[in-house]
Amino acid sequence: METDWPLIAVRFALYATLSGLFGLSAFSLYGLKAGERADALALRPWLVGSGLLGLLFSGIALALLAAAMAGAPPWPIDQEAIGMLLSGSATGTAWEARMAALVVASIAALVAAGRAALLGLVAFAAAVALATLAWTGHGAMDEGAVGWVHLGADILHLLAGGAWAGALLGLVLLVARPVGRVDAAHLTLTHRALHGFGLVGTILVGTIVVTGVVNAWLLVGLANLPDLLTTRYGQLLIAKLALFGAMLALASLNRFRLTPAFERSIAVADHHGALRALRRSLAVEASCAVAILALVAWLGTLEPPASAM
């Protein structure tokens, strides 16, 4: 099977954009106070930009998916194939729901100005948009009760992963603030956000692990575990798990070593070294998250071992 790189690239762009939109809006609600959101993270351009990019990438993805299903080239756009996809499939319904959710999220983000109610609407609409991606992957391939379990696990996996990735974006923005704009208040805010993410991060990791096990059981199965190294799907899945393990290690380092060291450095007014260490660690963790999203985009175009039996 020939690798469809344009479709993989657009899938990755969607995963990254929608994860950022959902995760960053959610992080701004639980990680920051009302008066801090707009200044600390410059939320409006990030959220509005993510919403608009999500609309753009969704349109491109629809055209590429319709062309692939019709066995036609992506250009010129096959309007008949797009019409059939929108009118006769769950994927088309999910796409329409995503577009509506992204319009709502973009408008709400434009007028939110840090207000909790509107940011909550952004987060909810972004969660809906992110969840619709489950219908473009393996989560929608089963039927009956198993199909609902698989789809539900896939949606929770997407939301937990998106919340983690978006929170990483928020934390990176906090620690990467230019030196000239870092004052005592921002340092205190940053430490509180880092410390507060500990409990949320634990819940997200637990959700990712449980739903990942369910998905692995349904997509791979015990009988196919020995063959993972010999298939492209298995190799990419192993790479994803290795990156996830690296993210767990870095998250533990941040929570139990670097964040306490940062707190001590604030107390003695010598935060530069501790802040640099946090920047490096969060940058590497965020890079792992981006790589995982790329692998997820690729994995969704491959046939899993369980369906090949």
UniProtKB/TrEMBL annotation:
GO CC, any one term: plasma membrane
Chief place where the protein resides: membrane
Ranges of residues in domain Copper resistance protein D: 192-299
InterPro entries: CopC/D, CopD, Cu-R_CopD_dom
One of the protein's GO biological processes: copper ion transport
Ranges annotated as spanning the membrane: 12-32, 52-72, 92-111, 118-135, 155-176, 197-220, 232-253, 282-300
Keyword annotations from UniProtKB, A to Z: Cell membrane, Membrane, Plasmid, Transmembrane, Transmembrane helix
Subcellular location: Cell membrane
Record-linked Pfam families: CopD
NCBIfam families, alphabetized: copper_CopD (NF033808)
Protein's UniProt name: Copper homeostasis membrane protein CopD
